[in-house]
Amino acid sequence: MNILGISCFYHDSAASLVRDGLLAAAVLEERFTGVKHDSDFPSNAVNFCLEKEGLRIDDIDYIVFYDKPFTKFDRILNSYLQTAPVSYPAFRKAIPVWLRQKLWLPQIIRKELGFQGELLFVEHHLSHAAGTYYCSPFDKAAILTIDGVGEWATASVGEGRGNKIELQKVMNYPHSVGLLYSAFTYFLGFRVNSAEYKVMGLAPYGEPVYADLIKSNIVRIFDDGSIHLNLKYFEYHYGLRMTGKRFEKLLGRPRRSPESELTESDRNIAASIQAVTEEIVFKMARHAKDLTGLSSLCLSGGVALNCAAAGKLLQSRMFDDMYVQPPSSDAGGAIGAALYAHYSMTDSPKRNDQPYFTLGPAFTESEIKEFIESENIPHSYTTDDRLSSFTAGKLVEGKIVALFHGPMEFGPRALGFRSILADARDREMKAKINRAVKFRETFRPFAPVVTEESAPEYFESGRPSPYMLFNFEVKEDKREIIPAVTHKDNTARIQTVNRSGNPPLYDILKSFEKETGVPVVLNTSFNLRGRPIVRTPQEAFSTFLSSGIDVLILGNFVIEKINIDAGRFERFKITTRED
Questions:
Q1: Which CATH class name applies to 365-572?
Q2: Taking the complete model, does pTM exceed 0.90, yes or no?
Q3: Which tens digits make up the pLDDT trace of 132-149?
Q4: Of 505, 467, 502, 473, which Cα lies nearest the Cα of 487?
């Protein structure tokens, strides 16, 4: 049975393909359009999934959408009606989009894809729950989903046992942890549904001096982790902004102007909402454990990507083990919806071996060679057995190396297939990459990638972390050894690698360790600010030319900046965008 999962029209549109219960392909639409967090219908993503598996649309048994549009429309109408007449400007902007597009999803799917089969719709938080539980290694687990809002639900607690999932409790709009965090994201001058991670990254530079003020006035937190927001401080439920004058008056200052210099107040506000969010997440998790009696936890929804909160929860040992869906945002809903449909219609046992490293677009050596030679790009070629030592040598020299090989990652994290690597021992490397490669704020941290067997030597982890989803404390005697990836609070969002998961990256780490004694390298996504992670060799070359990257490795082909006449390739250069 072939099932196609789709998410779109809000943010992070994506498609996935499940074949007889096995996740076979998945990709975000943004990787084809170049529009970060693209929300449009994922035609390109669907076509890739079909082509990867050699299928036509007629071979698909079901197409499954990751939420229920009519239920969501009911919530939106109710919200606007309850807040009329102040909601009229937002109503006037939103309703035409619904009447023109979102309410016609079945017709759009059939028109865009030429699909004549059966369409299914799964509730938003059930898609999140299925995406994390069915991809986890657990046969039974408590499930916690937390995000902005789906149809009505903003969080849910449930459990998975065998191949079945049951959601037992939900929290409903307008009370939402995700929207609370997004409101502070907006107030701090960052883009909502895009830059919440900036607030998380900024938090360690401040003190949570506003936490009590927030809990006394803005959000009431109950013992089970459910919350009640004081809506007089928000405008998202009726307006075109997240917050307004009352929010500013309470915090004693205006909203930060985007791109302006960050202040002590900004840093303290970020620290405060991060602390409040962590308190809520801990209480929700505790309630999930008490309600289900299970010792493993599966986590999903946009808030699950708050790796600081997830790392603290893991290390608290509240649960024996935890799994966070790597693409926990709406993109992951495309996977969850397809897997939920599969297990709802079959008696097949739950698989505990769902792949994540082989889902995206890949390019053959001949395709890469054709691009390089067609553009007469100066290059060299290195064999597999020399690639790791060559790359490690460049890193030791202080070079910034971009790595492009194999199938691209699904989700927001670069895991060594479309990555930028650098020497984590270099104290100046963080500032250098932020300034000359990523063109972004100086406070933004970078993640370390480390061999799985060496992770306990450098980090208070005690377990593999292959998807870069948890913050762990850097051991005290290692902080001065890897300063470029040690954050202000002495934590790091680590990625562990073993040879079976990513042989080229593992071999690079081992070669680097052989030369330096350190099995840790800085790893960040291969993209410029405001642009998606690169998908094609041409995009990789353009990003290489447009930034301070020194060496580009496309498969086994090596391109070095010192050999490039920049003027000759001017047409390849691109610029950053707001993110």
A1: alpha beta
A2: yes
A3: 999 999 999 999 999 999
A4: 473
